[in-house]
Amino acid sequence: MKIRRIHVYLTLVLLAFGFIVSYSVQFTKSISTSTTPYTDSQWEKKQKLQEKILEEQIQVQKLEEQLQKIKHRVSEIERKMGEQEDQAREVLEQLDEVRMWAGLLPVTGKGLMVVLNDSKTLPESGNMNDYIVHEEQIRQVVNEMFSAGAEAISINGQRLTSISAIRCVGPTVLVNEVKIVPPFEISGIGDPDILVTALEMPGGVIQNFKDWTNIEVKLEKKEKMDLPAYTGDSQKLFRSDNSVMKEDS
Q1: End-to-end CA, the chain
Q2: Is 134 exposed, middle or buried (0-12, 13-18, 19+ CB in 10 A)?
Q3: Is a pLDDT exceeding 60 seen at residue 75?
């Protein structure tokens, strides 16, 4: 029988196909044998590792929640501390104000200086007392200035307090038990215009000095005055029986 050419081609194709199939099967087997499967102990270790990672993640989440709570508590504490600091600052400001009114702190500000001095001309006759400054005249100026809103007053550098006494001893005047001599510089912290108006009102303190005495009076507005603190016994300032200003009978 004569072999046709197509049979030869078909045989070659089948041989090639068989070769390819055989190679593919061998290749697949080699791949399967090269991949080593997990053993039971390896699977157990892998499972434990995953569980450990999961536990750590849960612990980290808990720590983050605790951290947020701590931050909130810190913020709340800082807020309360800020409120306490504000309250403490307010108390200190109030204490400084009390100490200022009590005369325990030096004071700086605008105000008025009133200078009272004995007359430079002596009378040949008449009452000599009309030509010199007396403690009641100093006291009248001080009381009028306080009434007009003066925050603090000093006389020749002696700061007035609730226990200050102004009295004559011979030719001198005692303020806070310290001798002072004329001219008497009465310095008051406050609105200078209001203080001047109060002193110079008709029938007021200055008008009476001009009408009934011969002492010298000068008023000078100041943009800045420095009044010292009281240097006496501060414990006496807080006794309940103290008056605003002592007057000698």
Answers
A1: 168
A2: middle
A3: yes
Residue 230 phi/psi, 5° resolution? -65, 135
Are the C-beta atoms of residues 147 and 230 closer than 8 Å to each other? no
Kindly compute the dihedral angle of the four CA atoms of residues 97, 102, 105, 111, in this order, to the nearest 10 degrees: 80
CATH level 2 (architecture), domain 108-238: 2-Layer Sandwich (3.30)
Contacts of 231 (CB under 8 A, 6+ apart): 159, 176
Mean pLDDT of 201-212: 93
Q: Higher-confidence residue: 108 or 53? A: 108
Domain boundaries, the chain: 42-102, 108-238
- Residue 246: pLDDT above 80? no
The DSSP H or E segment spanning 216 is: strand 216-227
Residue 31 has pLDDT above 60, yes or no: no
